[in-house]
Amino acid sequence: MQIETTNLDIYGNDPLPWSRAHAALHDFIADPDGRAYLSTCGPDGRPHTTGIGALWLDDGVYLVSGPGTRKSRNLAANPACALAFPFDDLDLVVEGTAAIVTDPNTLERIAARYRAAGWPVEVRGHAFTAQYSAPSAGRPPWHLYYVTPHTVVGVATAEPHGATRWRLS
Q1: Extended strands (E) in the chain
Q2: Is the CB of residue 65 less than 8 Å from the CB of residue 138?
Q3: Which of 8, 104, 154, 167 could form a disulfide with 4 if both were Cys (CB 3.0 to 4.6 A apart)?
């Protein structure tokens, strides 16, 4: 992966290293202690942001959503999206493009990660199902989306401070 770094800091701090952002995201899975938010844009241009159960793996973000939810309808009309991750020492925004995952091996692998984290999800066809999920996911079955990141912006909230944009290709 190629990474282009741009220093956005206006106070003279050095650019943040991608390794700091990547370490924060590495193996992230949303739970009560780790939050993530998804922003989409509806066909009418209105923004929509909601908390989600995200998982960082394969150098991108996996998320689950029912087809009838606003976020899924928005992604069907426009797959461009942004995800926000507020970590203790670093706020990250990941911009990318979402696509529904249908590969059976990937679905099983991601379901296993969710099960290991305590969500008893199963794969049925090209979707997930379980007895429960986050209320914002809608009713089952749920699509699994993979967001391919193209830009990440980080703002450090602890030393060393800084603000940086990374373009990924």
Answers
A1: 3-7, 37-41, 47-51, 54-57, 60-65, 80-86, 90-100, 122-124, 127-129, 143-156, 163-168
A2: yes
A3: 167
Residue 12 CB neighbours (<10 A): 8
- Taking the C-alpha atoms of residue 147 and residue 82, their distance in angstroms, rounded to an integer, is 9
Amino acid letter at 79?
A: P
Counting residues of the chain whose pLDDT is more than 90, the rounded percentage is 87
104 burial (CB, 10 Å; 0-12 / 13-18 / 19+) is exposed
**What is the C-alpha end-to-end distance of the chain, expressed in Å?**
6
Note whether 22 and 164 are within 8 A (CB). Answer: no
Residues near 114 by beta carbon (within 8 Å), at least 6 away in sequence = 29, 55, 64, 121, 128
